[in-house]
Predict the 3D structure of the following.
Amino acid sequence: MTPALSDALSRARSRVEDALESALPGADQTPTRLHQAMRYAVLAPGKRLRPFLVYEAGALFGAGEKDLDSAACAVEMIHAYSLIHDDLPAMDDDDLRRGQPTCHRAFDESTAILAGDALQTLAFEHLARETPAGAECRLAMVQTLATAVGSQGMAGGQALDLGAVAHQVDATQLEAMHRYKTGALILASLRLGSLSGTHEVDESAHRALDAYGQRIGLAFQVQDDILDVTGDSEATGKTSGSDARRAKLTYPGLMGLEASQHFARRLRDEAVDALSGFGPGADRLRALADYIIHREH
C-alpha cells in the first residue's frame, strides 16, 4: 500500500468512525441489548473501504467531507447489517468476523437478526435525515442505496450464493452472483459520493466511475476467495477454509488459484484504465485497485 493511500484510508476510517459513534444509538439506551449488538457489529475494527469510496468519489465531484459523512455512515451500517445476516446459522453459519465472535455468537441469534434489521433501517433514516443535499438529491441517494441492498443487489447475491452451494455454476453465473453480493454496495458507495458533488460533470465521467466500481467490486471478491485458500484466520479476521468446508463455489474452486490471481490482476488493470479521464485527484482510487488484490485481510 502506498503511503498516500494508507494516510487517506486512515483519515477516512477515523472520520467515519467518529460519525458512526454519534449516529448509532447509545449502548445504555433502551432496548440496551439490541443497541449494544448494533454498536458491536458496526464499530468492530474494519477497513471502512466503502466509506472511503464515498469520500474519494465525492471529492472528485466537488463535495466536502462534511457533506459526505451521512452517506459514508449509511453504507457502513448497510455493510455491517449484511455481515450480521450473512454470518447467521441459516446463511453461512460463521463464528468469526473482523477478528471477533460474530454477532449471533457474541449475543444470540434473535438479537443478531434484529440488530441487522435495525441497522438497515437506520442507514436509510440517517441518509434521508442528515444528508445536507436537496430533496431531489436525497431521493436519488436513497434509491441508489435501496437498489444496492435489494433483490438486484446484495440480497439477490446472497440468494444466488446459497443456491450455488454444491451445484455446478459457470464463470458467468459466479461473476453475476458476486456483482450483486459484493459489487453492488461498492458501486453504490461511489455513486453516493458522486451524487453529493457540486461540479457539473459530463455523464461519461459517471460511467467511467461506474466501470471502475464494477471492476474493483469483483476484484475484491476474487481476492476474498483467494484469501480463504491462502490466508489464515488471525490475519483475515475470518475462519479460513470455511468456503471449501461448506462446498461453496469460489474462483479458486472454479478456475484454480493461479488463474484466479491472474483474473484479479486483470480486473485491477481494467479498473485503473477506467480512470484514465481523471487527473491526479483519482490517484488514491488507482492505488486502491492495486491494494485490493494484494491485501492479506
The chain is about 70% helix and 0% strand. Residues 3-294 form a domain with the Farnesyl Diphosphate Synthase fold (CATH 1.10.600.10). Residues 203-230 form the longest helix (28 residues). Residues 22 and 33 are 18 Å apart (CA to CA).
